[in-house]
Task: inverse folding
C-alpha cells in the first residue's frame, strides 16, 4: 500500500485529530469572522468530510439564497461530506486548490481551513484563490503547522518528545536518515504568510494566534498524522514513525508530568484588493 493510499484510508490522516472539541472551536472562530449574510457565494476549499461546511451552514442560518461549494481532491472524503451534509444550497466538487479558479469564479469568500500547510507551492495557490474571488472578497485560512505554533515555554516538551521517539527507534535498531532533513517540509511564519497574501493581490491580512490546550489524546493523534511524522522523523516509514512517536510521547509526558500542552493556531483573514 502506498503512502497516499494509507493516508487516504485513514491510517495516517488528519481525521482523528479533527474529532477533538478544540478543533471545532478554532474553525468556528474564523467562520464567525468571515461568514455573514452579505457573503452569498462561499467556497469551502479542502472541505474534507464536511465538518467546516456544517459550520458555514450553521453560521448562515436560514440563508436560502446562499451558495456553498465544497471542494476537495479526495473522492472518499467527498462521499463522507455528501452523506453528512444535506442542504439544497451546498454542492460538493472534486478538485484541487492548485486550480480552484477553473471551478469557481466571483466568490464572496474562500475558506481554506487546516490545509494550507499541505500545499507545496503556497504562493501559486494563494494567487489562484485571489482569481476565484470578486473584489473585496475574503480569503480566510488557519493552520497549526506553522513556524510559531509552539507557545512560549513549551518548546522543551515538543523537543523532548522527538528525542524520546528517536530513542525508541534506535532501541528497535532503526535510525533517522539525516540526509532526509533537507527535504523535510518547511513551515512558514505568520509574516511570510502575510507577505504571500499581499503579493497575490490582497490587502495586508489580519493575523491572530488562537491558543488551545491539547490533551494527551490529541497529541497522540497528531503523532499519527503523516505530515507530522515526516517532519519530526524524516526518512522513517510512517508505520515505524507513528509507533516511535507514541512511545516517545508516553516517556515525555511521564518525565514532565504535564496533563496538557498549549499550542497556537494561526488564523488569517485577507480581503481582495
Result:
Amino acid at each position: 500500500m502506498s503512502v497516499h493510499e494509507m493516508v487516504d484510508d485513514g491510517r495516517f490522516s488528519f481525521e482523528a485529530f479533527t474529532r477533538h472539541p478544540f478543533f471545532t472551536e478554532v474553525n468556528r472562530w474564523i467562520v464567525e469572522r468571515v461568514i455573514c449574510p452579505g457573503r452569498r457565494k462561499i467556497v469551502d476549499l479542502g472541505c474534507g468530510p464536511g465538518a467546516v461546511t456544517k459550520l458555514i451552514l450553521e453560521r448562515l442560518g436560514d440563508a436560502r439564497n446562499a451558495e456553498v461549494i465544497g471542494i476537495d481532491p479526495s473522492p472518499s472524503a467527498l462521499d463522507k461530506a455528501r452523506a453528512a451534509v444535506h442542504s439544497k444550497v451546498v454542492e460538493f466538487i472534486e478538485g484541487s486548490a492548485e486550480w480552484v479558479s477553473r471551478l469557481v469564479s466571483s466568490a464572496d469568500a474562500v475558506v481554506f481551513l487546516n490545509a494550507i500547510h499541505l500545499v507545496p507551492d503556497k504562493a501559486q495557490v494563494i494567487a489562484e484563490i485571489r482569481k476565484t474571488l470578486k473584489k473585496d472578497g475574503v480569503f480566510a485560512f488557519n493552520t497549526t503547522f506553522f513556524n510559531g505554533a509552539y507557545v512560549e515555554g513549551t518548546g522543551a516538551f515538543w523537543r523532548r518528545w522527538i528525542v524520546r521517539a528517536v530513542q525508541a527507534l534506535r532501541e528497535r535498531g532503526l535510525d533517522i536518515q539525516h540526509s532526509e532533513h533537507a527535504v523535510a517540509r518547511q513551515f512558514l511564519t505568520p509574516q511570510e504568510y502575510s507577505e504571500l497574501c499581499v503579493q497575490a493581490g490582497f490587502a495586508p491580512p489580519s493575523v491572530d494566534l488562537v491558543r488551545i490546550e491539547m490533551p494527551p489524546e490529541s497529541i497522540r493523534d497528531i503523532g499519527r498524522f503523516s505530515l507530522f511524522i515526516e517532519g519530526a522523523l524524516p526518512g522513517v516509514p510512517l508505520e515505524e514513525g507513528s509507533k516511535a512517536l507514541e512511545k516517545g510521547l508516553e516517556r515525555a509526558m511521564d518525565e514532565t508530568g504535564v496533563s496538557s500542552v498549549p499550542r497556537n493556531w494561526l488564523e488569517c483573514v485577507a480581503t481582495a484588493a
Observations:
- Strands lie at 41-45, 67-72, 90-94, 107-113, 133-143, 206-214, 261-271.
- Residues 3-271 form a domain with the Rossmann fold fold (CATH 3.40.50.150).
